[in-house]
Amino acid sequence: MALRQALPDEEYLYRWVQLRESQTPFSQDFWGRWAPKAVAAYQHWLTPPPLNPLDRQEQHLQNLWKQGDYSVREELSRFLSEVYPQTSWSFFTSPGDEEGRRPRLLALWQKAHEQRRRLEHERQLNQNLPSFHSRLLTRLARVAEAEKALKAFLTDKDFGWDLEDGLGDEQDWGPLETYAQQLEEDPALQRIAELIGRDWRSFRTPPPQLGKESEPGKGEIRGVTWGRSWSDAVSSELSLLATKETSEVFFVKEAESRLLVWDYFTSASPPKLYEDQLNALNHNERGPLIAALDTSGSMRGEPEKVAKAAVLALARIAWKENRPCLLINFSSKIRVLDITDLKHNLTPFLNFLSYSFHGGTDLTPALREALKYLAEGRFHDADVLVLSDFATPKIPGTLRSELRRQQEKGTKFYSLTVTTRPLNDFLNIFDAGWTYDIHPDRPRGIAAESLSGSGIS
Questions:
Q1: Cα–Cα distance for residue pair 282/340, rounded to 1 Å
Q2: CA nearest 297: which of 387, 363, 358, 362?
Q3: 134 to each of 20, 138, 303, how far by Cα in Å?
Q4: How many CB atoms lie within 10 A of CB 440?
Q5: Residue 321: pLDDT above 70?
Q6: 432-437 β-sheet, strand order
Q7: Is the dihedral of CA 253, 254, 258, 264 positive or negative?
């Protein structure tokens, strides 16, 4: 029905397609979803082909004759006799009174030309229709299966893919299935993705009434951070005081302000949120994301699996909430992939999930790349998550200073350490961090208490 409405003059095509559709197993729901795209494909296929060399030669002779160049009379006579042998042209191309006969010749010529082009196109369509229809149904089936896989493992959002966007091409969905399953078994990674990104709800809170001050107190917990306050330390840190040996570790961490403490959100008067920031966020509650992923050889195996699952969790959140999301892969060199636009970047993202990790670790170029994107554009108000085992050298002091200045502007730098051993933030650059323990003799994963902040429901 959709094809008949769109192409009312193509009755033969409609009947032929209807017959073939009756022989295919596609459901009515399938055609309800894909019929408009199939009709668009037929409309594009029915478009007459571009001019061929014969058409261009004919167009050239016609233009000369229209301009009154009768020196091409003999060439024109031969051309018309060969291309249109069933029409007599001698009267129009004979010498004498060319000017008076020119309009009649051009009218007859144009009619013959249109008929020839139409018949040639019809012959081409009739010859190619079976193969085109077969290819179209195959592509529809592939695209439908691809969307089914995406909804199951990645996102149920409809990005409006067309049949020619490459969605139905041969894709390796295996890695996507693997890391989607990892997230199902490890919701802590999804929780981290939910915690990251500036919470713009706080900026839109109405200011306190005049004459009234905000009540003192620590307010809500929104996560964890580094500090030295005993009263704010999480229970796993306080448990170090149980023995003399572990107490020494506690006091060292306290002296270095490296205790894991609750990060409280106070009810201070909100800063002004400028209109361009609101527009950039597209009315989302949380801001853009930048993920810097360590793809060095030391991350092979279990760390790689955890890190890729965490990136998938970030991508899910970003696509669901229309938040810009940038992926920076770093080892001996860096690669940048803007995965905000899933419609056009699905294949590169799936390829990333298939990459094997190798090379050395150099965090400095990745941080500099993140700072470049934070300087302007869509990611200027993003937060950054670095995923690594942090088997990396210290970063230069100049870069550390640049990071501090960026943090003063409101950017948060988070870390997710995938490791078999306890590891302090010896880089001393992160606002907060989590450790994913993969030691075979200890409980696997992230400590639940480090994810129990109530700032985000």
A1: 13
A2: 358
A3: 9, 6, 45
A4: 8
A5: yes
A6: 334-338, 325-330, 289-294, 383-388, 413-419, 432-437
A7: positive
pLDDT for 202-227, tens place per residue? 444 444 443 444 444 455 565 667 77
Structure tokens at 296: 């060095």
Checking if the pLDDT of 320 tops 80, the result is: yes
More confident residue, 158 or 394: 394
C-alpha 199/C-alpha 117 separation (Å) is 62
Q: Is the dihedral of CA 174, 176, 179, 183 positive or negative?
A: negative
Amino acid code (one letter) for 368: R
Task: Answer for the pair 157, 281: CB distance below 8 angstroms, yes or no.
Answer: no
- What does the block give as tokens for 236? 């796993």
DSSP calls for 42-107: HHHHHSPPPP-HHHHHHHHHHHHHHTT-GGGHHHHHHHHHHH-TTS--HHHHSSS-HHHHHHHHHH
Taking Cα atoms as reference points, which of 413, 339, 421 lies closest to residue 159?
339
Nearest-angstrom CA–CA distance, 427 and 415: 11
How far are the Cα atoms of 35, 37, 39, 131 from residue 22, in angstroms, in the given order?
14, 18, 16, 17
Structure tokens at 227: 């500090």
Question: How far is the CA of 58 from the CAs of 50, 61, 116, 353, in angstroms?
Answer: 14, 5, 12, 54
In 268-368, which ranges are E strands?
289-294, 325-330, 334-338
**Predicted TM-score of the model (pTM):** 0.62
Token digits for 437? 């323990």
Write the DSSP string, 144-198.
Answer: HHHHHHHHHHT--------TTSSTTS----HHHHHHHHHHHH-HHHHHHHHH-S-
Three-class SS state of 16: helix
* Residues 296/358, Cβ–Cβ less than 8 Å: yes
Listed ranges 78-92, 129-143, 219-233, 439-453; the one with the highest mean pLDDT: 78-92
